[in-house]
Fold these 2 entries.
Entry 1:
Amino acid sequence: MHSAKEPSANAPETERGPRRRPGRLRRIGLPYLLLLPALLLELLVHLLPIVIGITMSFKELTQFFIRDWGAAPWSGLDNYEIAVDFDAPVGEALLHSFLVTCAFTLLSVGLCWLIGTTAAIYLQETFKGRGFLRALFLVPYALPVYAAVITWGFMFQRDNGLINHVLHDQLGLTDSAPFWLIGDNSFVALLTVSVWKGWPFAFLIMMAGLQNIPREMYEAAALDGAGMWQQIRRITLPSLRSVNQVLVLVLFLWTFNDFNTPYVLFGRSAPEAADLVSIHIYQSSFVTWNFGTGSAMSVLLLLFLLAVTGVYLWVTSRERKSAHV
Amino acid sequence: MRRFRAAAVGAATLSLALTASACGGGSTSGGGGSNDSPKTLTYWASNQGPNVEADKKILKPELAKFEKQTGIKVKLEVVPWSELLNRILTATTSGQGPDVLNIGNTWSASLQASGALLPWDEKNFDKIGGKDRFVESALGSAGAPDKDPAAVPLYSMAYALYYNKKMFDEAGIDKPPATWDELVEDGKKISKGGKWALGAEGANLSNNIHQVFALGKQHGADFFTADGKADFTSDGAVAAVKQYVDMMAKDKIIAPGNAEYAQNQSLSDFAKDKTAMVLWQAAATTFKSQGMSDDEWGVAPVPVDSGAPGAGKATNSMVAGINMAVFKNTKNIDGSLKFVKFMTSDAEQKILCKSYGSVPPVKAAQEDAAFDRPELKVLRDTLAKSAAPLPQVPNESQFETAVGTAVKNLFANAADGREVTTASVKAELVKAQQQMSSQ
């Protein structure tokens, strides 16, 4: 703050010099100055923990050293070797949870996108009750995640839950009441909650994107005899390309890293079929007190996500450029 | 952003905490605390009662009493179980913890290894009236055997067999089973028409560990070797886990739905006359809160093959309970010791344990007439004669997760109707053990 005053305090003195200088100085210096607090915070909140996390991944950090982690012995690449040794139990479990997460993310993002986009397109037309539906669709987005997922947990209970009551008791769709929170079905339960939680965001973004498409294009297309499906394929989707690019990326990152949903649904030890990477790493670090291996897994996850994001952005921006040419 | 993930927050807190301790220094130096701040204390109490508010109601008047006696103000924070261990870990890394805290007694050796807790040597014990005041089995769960304890026993509990009198009457059973064979036999009489004999909390890792640990003792297995190495795959350990899961898989006296229980649902089934027996620790207050009157249930020791609980293969419970520890870097070491002395005094032990339905680990307090209730008598006898502390090893916490998860997976298989064999039990335990050794 103190230095922020300096240019203006000096301004009268430099008045005699070349006229444009103080202005330029202010123009170039001030923005950076204003950015400084944010930069410092960014450094403190994001960069520093990453650096510390990376350091920890090279250390043998167990309960013997958590009080004075600097004293933990260096272990070189040991933690990474343990994490990627897919023939040994730790690596095998990590690979398993990675594959589960990939499948889960693909399905969840795909479904969120599909439902969100469909709903947004349908709600483009004005009709009675549109406002109510819009508000209703955003409910999952407005609820506190924790409370919502706990409620889902209750609904998925085998003996007293609503899901089995409807599926088994009322509709008779299943022979016996299935388990949802343990065993293989847990993947379906997790996916259901994740999609329920995620699609309103896709809906919101798509709605915003659709507002930007001029109505005249549709009118012209309709005059030319294009049906609804053709309009969606030829006008809506191409116009939403840049919105989609961000939406899919954000959904991907959120879903891949989602911790709340599985943690609240399954507790600290998720069933194998729903063992997402985030909870797996949490377990390695905070439940089995192996912060070194946990950090190594986190760094590997970070690298993977960076790589995927990089490739994704590169490919999509190339597509966009070629589309414009 | 509402999508802030608990993991990220946890990691960030930890990292920041680490930075603080790395930059600030001081907190990581050894030593045994100071008296820089003699007028106040911070106390983290674990959530013992039905909820956090109930705990505050019980503890606040006692803390006021302490303040009146010593002039030291105690700042109380009741921490829910699910958060306690992470809170302690964060406090340990940052050095910014409370002065005095409650810990689950199974974590004693793990936390002792971190070096964050004040060791209770002769000198410190003398300041609270000496080691001899405490029940031996409770002291056994306060740290590794060859070291000064890391904590002092505060509340003790043990497992007992609680049975629903009405359901026993209906099935024509006149006394609770004393052996496992009797339990299975009785269980088959009860388990029909939507009613089940025994409750389990198949998805609760700690509960799984408590049950298979006692059964393990009965099969001569310890889950750890004498030098503290994981030993989950011995014949005894496999037999113990199989015996427990078989009550659902083979004997069919545990309802399959119990495989996903982790929130004490089995107690509510018990209160609703759906389940006839539970193996539980100090369940009286919960039954009351579920609307059961004291004469509707009975209590007996957990079965053993000989029918007579005792030491070794007749062990029928883990030593359950809460310990009180002092953070090594407290700024009020004298006050902390005074506070521990106060909380473990005969008078306070009677008040607190009565409120919480636990057994005092202080011998003199146990003599009080209030602890003569039949239920507490069983728990007290178990603690004195036939309970053993969980292995006091630094990686006890990993053991709970690894083996607790193995049992959870096996229950899930049993519930799904998949066969549970000696080989499948062994395979799960091998996996659990491999996770321990390669980390």
Entry 2:
Amino acid sequence: MRNKTIRHLSLVLALMLFAGVLAACNNGSGGSAQGSEQGGTSENKGDKVTLQFYMLGDAPKDLPVIESEINKLAEADLNVNVKFNYTSWTDWDQKYKLLLSSGQPIDLIFTADWTFYQSYAKKGAFLALDEMLPKAAPALKAHVPDDMWDAVKINDKIYTVPSTWIEYVTEGIAYREDLREKYNLPKPESLETLEAYLEGIKANEPNMIPIADSNANHTHGIRQLTSKLVNTAGQLPYGLDIMYDTPSTVTSYWGSAQHLEDLKTYKRWMDKGFFPKNVLNVKDTSNSLLQNGKAAVVLSGENPNKFNADVIKVQSTHPDWKLAYFPYPNAKGFAQPVHPIHNGFAIPRSSKNPEKALAFYEKLVTDKRYNWLTEYGVEGKNFEVDNGYYKMVGDAQTNGFPREGMNGWAWRNPEFMLYDKTFDDVLTMFEDLDKIKKPDIFTGFAEDWTPYQAEKAALEQVEKQYLYPLNVGLVADVEAGLNTFMEKAKQAGLEKIQSEYTKQWQEYLKSAGIQ
Amino acid sequence: MNTPMNTRTRTNTRLRDSEFTFMFQLISYSFIIILSIMCLLPFLLILSGSFSSNESIVRDGYHLFPTDFSLEGYKMVFKFPTQVLKAYGVTVFTTVVGTTLGLFLITMAGFVLQRKDFKYRNTFSFFIYFTTLFGGGLVPWYIMLANYFNLTDTYTVLIFPGLMTPFLIILMKNFIRSAVPDELVESAKIDGANDFRIYFSIVLKLAMPGIATVGLFLALGYWNDWFTSSLFINNPDMYQLQFYLYNTMNTITFIDQMAIGTGITLSQDVPTESTKMAMAIVVTGPILFLYPFVQRYFVKGLTIGAVKG
């Protein structure tokens, strides 16, 4: 009898111990996070709610300061609090998917074409904003031009608030201008002059590897020199060719005469020693190779912004060097500014307070106090305005909130924007590109690969195995290599993918009214 | 006549014996030496990389001895040690608490499940085995922890999911079954010990080698964990060490590969090659020095169970 009571007692004790440990951990550390979450879900505690705000990337050091400042403003204006959450860049795509599919309450989340805004919107992950906008955020509705609202529509509904700042992320060739002058080489502005430039570098600077490259990225660059593809970055999937002037004609680049010719060029370049032999395994970033004088040319991945960063870096470490830039749009004859869905914010379906969220987002974009706080930090502490230019206090190491430290690309407002003095060159470049501007007709297209998912995966394998070595000229017989690749790609289902993609593309052109 | 012949043969065999021993030692020593060099080389590369200037790494690659000696990598790491230290703290905390708590639960479970007088042991065992065959997958797991238990941004979420694994429970159960004879439990009972007394005074003492093994597994699991941080932790102060490092590296990859088309700019400072190497040294260093001292206890603990008198 006594034994039994003791057994019962000890069982209860053990359970309590276990529960106690868990509870202790919970309260000790996560109390605040949980408290705020409960605040966000319970409506009966007055009208005040906490909005859950999700951004990509890493939070800046001073985020708590900014958050409390913003909350002071938001509490007075809208009676809301905001919690800024960050996903970090590790597995962000997986986390993004989980955030949207798990149904946890999120009020605002970053969207872009590269986070698959189109397919999430199609699947119904976001709330349609059409009816909410005029009521909850009239100023925001007016701030964004109508053609931008139209451009982000999926199935005739608006699911994201686009950013109104127009930028170019077109690529170009970044090269060492000082070496070009020194050895009297031509400017690398076409395939021929580029080759001559590379030859000159190889002959005069034996320790340099002319092209900074990893994973055969240069092929995108070269294609932009030689073709007028519909996609800015020259990266059409599945080896397709769609020219900007004739968008409804879709042909296969893979296996074409042009493809063979390009591959022969790469082979010739490899034989001349323009790439390192282990180019498929290079782990250094192209920029660091250029910045440290290992390579003379970067062919892919240099948009005006990144090039500017390289210039600043080189000026501080090697003031005697000079870098120059040739934008690919100059070779193509047209430039496409980023599509409005390139940076935006959506309200997930799980949101408990969509109207409040939209009203808060309106403040973020249209109210200078909110906008400056979240883009540049606290004036005087994190930044100063010097002659109309942005000036960071201290340096990137000591400053807890560098320019756009919150990754607030989506709520940039051209009226309030402050630029660093060094950014002037980029703005000049943008002005030049403005002159040859044509609308982006590719990004509005949402590919649906469910009909050929298996084939797509198989094709990616084939590409890695048979096409990459061709791209860097590691196959002795290019023609036979290309034939093998085409054969394997067809076995993997290339034709099915291409015809299905073409069908979807042409349907999109029809619905968007593009000829 | 016979005697000297005999001695000669004997010396011959003795000689041959020592020759074999010598050969064996030669082969085994050279094998071990080559193997340890293979293990040491990558570490040496990291060490020398951490003392090289970044430019020399990018230009000439890694060398066994730094060509251009520099401390800039370490300077960068220790400029703001708070983040590294915080991550350290989190990892140490989760490892210690998780391992202790996990060991307690696993030994309890193992002890109970192997008791023949526990009527439902097969039912309970089945529940545990079942999860090794059929799991819910990532999304339900995430929903469970994030939405139902509300564990996002808590230390609990870093500890709780790793506390018990079916494999370790099975391991422990079998170990206790072999290490603690039923008769011992029975005689203890006759002497008036209750189940807790048996558990604390007999099972825990006899199962020491098993506890050492399971404890090692648990501790390594917690020390190397980055995935839970990646999914459930939004507050940078609560990142585990491995995740902190992993995330830093990933940011670099992201900037290089994704940022091309996205056009986004990241304003935070990107660590250079030498900083990455210095960070790796700072992070692995203490464990590296700790391991040889702790290891012998493991070896001792593990061999106790191997030889029975």
